[in-house]
Amino acid sequence: MKLIETKYFNRQIKKLEKIFKNTNKDYLTFSDNINIEPFSDLWNWFFKYRLWNSSIPSWKRWWYRIIIKTFNNKILPVFIYSKTIKENITEKEMLEWLKEITKELNK
Questions:
Q1: 4 touches 76 (CB < 8 A)
Q2: E strand or H helix at 91, and its extent?
Q3: What pLDDT is recorded for position 38?
Q4: Contacts by 8-15 with C-beta closer than 8 Å and gap 24+?
Q5: Ranges of residues in the chain whose predicted pLDDT is under 70
Q6: What is the CATH number of the domain that holds 26?
Q7: How confident is the model at residue 93, as a pLDDT?
Q8: Closest Cα partner for 9 from 93, 95, 86, 76?
Q9: What is the dihedral of CA 47, 53, 59, 60, to 10 degrees?
Q10: Which partner for 47 in 29, 38, 39, 92 could form a disulfide, CB atoms 3.0-4.6 Å apart?
């Protein structure tokens, strides 16, 4: 599967890096292993991937969540967040994120 990255998603990585210094490095482990990692089905071809957050001390580990959308043998990272900042997401939020990304991809 091919990974499609967007400026919208990369801005999210940069925002998280202000809080968790290893965010980009942690994300690279995801992008390097995209074809072999399991995803949890969320809703309507949205999937969730749990990514280890190496910036938090080991006794207090939290995970990132990467929300992805799959289509035509492609993987589109839609949103990334930390459970320390945001507990859960809604379908409405997922659709809003997808709308932003669709605008970017259609330019």
A1: yes
A2: helix 91-105
A3: 61
A4: 8/97, 8/100, 8/101, 8/104, 9/77, 9/78, 9/79, 9/80, 9/101, 12/79, 12/80, 12/81, 13/80
A5: 35-44, 58-61
A6: 3.30.2310.20
A7: 86
A8: 76
A9: -70
A10: 39
- The residue whose two tokens read 């006794």 is 59
Cα separation of 24 and 106, whole Å? 26
Query: Tokens in use for 10?
Result: 């990369």
Expressed as residue numbers, the domain containing 59 is 2-105
Which pLDDT belongs to residue 36?
52
Q: Would the pTM of this model clear 0.70, i.e. be above it?
A: yes
CA atoms 70, 74, 78, 79: torsion sign: positive
The token pair at 103 is: 């605008």
